[in-house]
Amino acid sequence: MTKTELLYEGKAKKIWKTEDENFLVSEFKDDLTAFNGEKKSSEEGKGALNNQISSALFELLNEKGIKTHFVKMLDDNNMLHKSCEVIKIEVIVRNIATGSLSKNLGIDNGKVLPFTLVEFDYKNDALGDPKLNDQHALILGLVKHQDELDKIRRVAREINDILKPFFFEKGLKLVDFKLEFGKDKNGNIILIDELSPDNCRFWDIESGESLDKDRFRQGKGGLKVAYTQVLNRILNK
Question: Other CB atoms closer than 10 Å to residue 128's CB: what's the count?
Fold first, then answer.
């Protein structure tokens, strides 16, 4: 597959058309953004790490029966995947309170939640990705039926049930993570986008050290080292 035309450029990836309309290529960028694009930087090699991490995790989920858009990793920075209609809902899955959940609701940072929390945000940068409830999503036409929201929520929990113990065995707490879904050419809802330290929070079980994009958000440095640690643990290196 070869890239033919730039379809879309986002904060972390460029999406390219290919000679086959059923497949696209995601090119992972080295750019870093936080706080809805207010903080920006770049870290050489970050895109390649995210591509490798995402590819490994998509392969794992595919093996476990989760339907994803992933086809294969083409090279260090490029991933081949199915073309999908994006559902403009960001799905946040939380196991431990931190970040905006602690800030907005006053829940102690680091508190283990009594059950897995699944939240919806409206994928809209101009509006600052506001929180959604089911009725909002239906009124906005982001999905056609309540059944589709129920499926997204169910699959998000299934993904958590796979990834949480997987990372625990690697010495990492899966604190929270963000998912995106789309519809394939047959109208099936499947997982899309990426799974990486850019949209997942990982804490080392023993030290509590953050090994994700919070290092950039909080100005801690060492982001590439942290991402490399995550990849090496996934690959058992």
Answer: 10
User: 194: closest CA among 59, 31, 50, 27?
Assistant: 50
Which residue stretches of the chain are H helix? 46-63, 99-105, 134-139, 146-169, 214-217, 223-234
Instruction: Name the helix (H) or strand (E) containing 22.
Output: none
Binning pLDDT at 50, 70 and 90, where does residue 130 land? very high
Residues in CB range of 202: below 8 A, 6 or more apart? 167, 172, 173, 174, 175, 210, 211, 212, 230
CA distance 203 to 167: 10
| CA nearest neighbour of 48 among 21, 18, 25, 75 | 75
pLDDT, tens digit, 9 for 90 and up, residues 59-73: 999 999 999 999 999
Q: What is the C-alpha to C-alpha distance for residues 236 and 228, in angstroms, rounded to an integer?
A: 12
pLDDT tens-digit series, residues 101-120: 999 999 999 999 999 999 99
DSSP code per residue over 35-77: TTTTEEEE-TTHHHHHHHHHHHHHHHHHHTT--BSEEEE-SSS
0.90 exceeded by pTM:
yes
- Is 129 in contact with 36 (CB distance < 8 Å)? yes
